[in-house]
Amino acid sequence: MSKSFLFALLYGLALAVLNQAQDQSGFISIDCGLPAPTHNIDSTTGISYISYASFINSGVNKTVQDEFKNDYQRYMWSLRSFLEGKRNCYKINVTHPRYLIRATFLYGNYDGLNDHPIFDLYLGANI
Question: What does the pLDDT read at residue 1?
Fold first, then answer.
């Protein structure tokens, strides 16, 4: 499969419904490599991340190589890789008219190939 079809969410998709910017109520922060039913808290920001498990059922969990772990927070060490299918979709119910989506990706040479993947990111039908 060519890399143009490789879709890897290497780390986190965070969906935040904007209703109270002062705290996390109304926000969903998803750690795309975190196994269920665990959660992770970013020690710098205090953001609590939940597992991806109830939002998608494709892809495989991977871990960045040890050499990257000193440079990144623990929540960045796990990732979800998608090597099959043209599209792999997270199913997230959006109930408010305004929302913020923040996505962060870390390759971390998880596959030992030292070759960053190329992928497209869509929100709904839009690239």
Answer: 36
Spatial distance between the Cα atoms of 76 and 11, rounded to a whole number of angstroms: 6
Contacts for 94 with CB less than 8 Å, ≥ 6 apart: 15, 17
Long-range CB contacts (< 8 A, 24+ apart) of 118-127? 118/3, 118/4, 118/6, 119/3, 119/6, 119/7, 119/8, 120/7, 122/87
User: Is-above-0.70 flag for pTM?
Assistant: no
Helix (H) or strand (E) holding 69: helix 66-69
pLDDT tens-place string over residues 74-94: 888 888 888 887 888 888 887
Closest by Cα among 107, 106, 98, 104 to 121: 104
Domain boundaries, the chain: 3-103
